[in-house]
Amino acid sequence: MRERAFLVGIDVRQRKKASVAAQARDVAGAARATAVLSADFSAEESMAELRELATSAGAEVLTEIIQSKDRPDPATLIGKGKLEEIQGMVASSDADLVLFDHELTPSQQRNIERIVEVRVIDRTQLILDIFARHARTREGQLQVELAQLEYMLPRLAGRGIEMSQLGGGIGTRGPGETQLETDRRKIHRRVRHIKEEVENVRRVRAQQRQRRESVPVPTVALVGYTNAGKSTLFNRLTQSEVPASARMFATLDPTIRAATLPSRRKALFSDTVGFIRNLPHTLVSAFRATLEEVQRASLILHVSDANSPIRHEQDIQVEKVLKELEAEKKPRIRVMNKIDLLAAGNRDALEDDANTVHVSAVNGAGVSTLLDRIDAVLQDDPLRRVKLAIPQREGKALAMLEGKARVYAREYQDGVVRMEAEAPESVLRKLQAFVLP
Predict the structure, then answer these.
(1) Within 13 Å of residue 195, how many CA atoms lie on the same side as its CB?
(2) Which of 95, 165, 320, 352 has the most Cβ atoms closer than 10 angstroms to its Cβ?
(3) How much of the chain exceeds pLDDT 70, in percent?
(4) Are 7 and 50 in contact (CB under 8 A)?
């Protein structure tokens, strides 16, 4: 049975001005600073995202309210009077829980719960719950549990029904009640154990990367805001069938697949977890082993939802996470996805440029252009156009060239095949004896 949720947002005018100014200071260059000044999510846009998060967590949204304040109330965030009003609305609507579009301090969460008399979940805990729902591999489950424990540790003292894990429901997946409420030392030991296991994961990934990097096959990482269509595009590029969903954070566990580029070079594509505004720091830290694929990639595809009215704001959140991962200076292609959802007139007016390609991962529009652009940007195992003379008896060399190069011209003469081709350096090194000066 779906839990009934009451959503609460807050529009803090002073904080918004301060955060916008801080963002502008953090971004180098006047042009980028100007862009950031208009990039803050409005309270309504933020609430729409919370609604989508709640739905992804399996909740039924009953109603929602946005409280405007000059500054957050230190005790209850939105003020005791407004909370008492919400308490009446919650009681009359028979809601199971109240979801806040804001991270609550432990004392705020306790104070709010005493007034509204139902479970209270903040935005961070809601995101952690969704991650717990979608983690499939042992690695993903470990990373989610680590993030949950680190989030919950400072909230143990004095917690009441919002900590109860026995009844289940949103915000209660993952670590159990006994661990969280009866023995803090056990939790600390569990955190240390998980960190050791995650470190083992990092070592295994490092070994896998070393093996991959010993062969000149570049890695292309897909990044973007959650629900930008990365998994659908990943499937289109690699001819895979990775589960794709319109729900937020449908992809949590990393996936790597090989694909052949138009030049016949191989590339590895990595599908990654979606980013989101104010992604909990505990998650960024816990998922660093996964996100190392982004750090080590030769090329980043920044996938954006061309149909989203807040695309600009979402793109800036992605930039923040890339900066935290120290990957913001990597070669990058901006991929504007979901153009099939645009009106025909808007779609016809789209133009690609040196850094941007417009695609529809659903119907394949623009994907061949994107593959050509990826091929041109990747510098690993660079391409070189050469002329060759290969005796016809050298079947292995001819087969290698046919399979791993673009052949532009071919001529048969006296038992020799004269060819003009474009091939990766790794292939040409093996065929050096046949390359003409």
Answers:
(1) 10
(2) 95
(3) 81
(4) yes
Mean pLDDT score, 79-96: 93
User: Which segments of the chain belong to CATH 3.40.50.11060?
Assistant: 3-136
Nearest to 229 by CA among 214, 211, 247, 212: 247
Q: How confident is the model at residue 174 (pLDDT cuts 50, 70, 90)?
A: low
Q: pTM, whole model, 2 decimals? A: 0.75
How does strand 255-260 pair with strand 219-224?
unpaired
**Which of these ranges, 168-177, 193-202, 348-357, has the smallest mean pLDDT?**
168-177
φ, ψ of residue 210 in degrees (nearest 5): -60, -40
Q: How far apart are CA 89 and CA 333, in angstroms?
A: 48
The sheet with strand 266-271 has its strands ordered as 255-260, 266-271, 219-224, 299-305, 332-337, 356-358
Instruction: Name the architecture of domain 3-136.
Output: 3-Layer(aba) Sandwich (3.40)
**255-305 tens-digit pLDDT:** 889 999 998 888 999 988 788 877 766 677 666 656 777 888 999 999 999
**DSSP reduced 3-state for 9:** strand
Mean pLDDT along residues 215-227: 87
Q: Determine contact, residues 171/125, Cβ cutoff 8 Å.
A: yes
Q: In this structure, are residues 135 and 143 in contact, taking their beta carbons and an 8 Å threshold?
A: yes
- Give the pLDDT band of residue 244 (cuts 50, 70, 90): low
Do the beta carbons of residue 424 and residue 404 sit within 8 Å?
A: yes
- Residue 169 confidence (pLDDT) above 50: yes
How far apart CA 429 and CA 75 sit, in angstroms, is 69
In this structure, which topology does domain 216-377 adopt according to CATH? Rossmann fold (3.40.50)
Instruction: Decide if pLDDT at 30 tops 70.
Output: no
Mean pLDDT, the chain, rounded, equals 83
Q: Where are the alpha helices (DSSP H) in 57-122?
A: 80-93, 106-116
User: DSSP class of residue 257?
Assistant: E
Centre a 10 Å sphere on the Cβ of residue 133 and count the other Cβ atoms it contains.
Answer: 17
What's the DSSP call for residue 38? T
State the Rg of the chain over Cα. Answer: 26
Instruction: State the CB neighbour count (10 A cutoff) for residue 4.
Output: 17
Q: What is the mean pLDDT of residues 325-341?
A: 93
Amino acid at 392: Q
Domain 383-434 has CATH 3.30.70.240: yes
DSSP secondary structure of 320-351: HHHHHTT-TTS-EEEEEE-GGGS-HHHHHT--
Contact of 181 with 159, CB cutoff 8 Å: yes
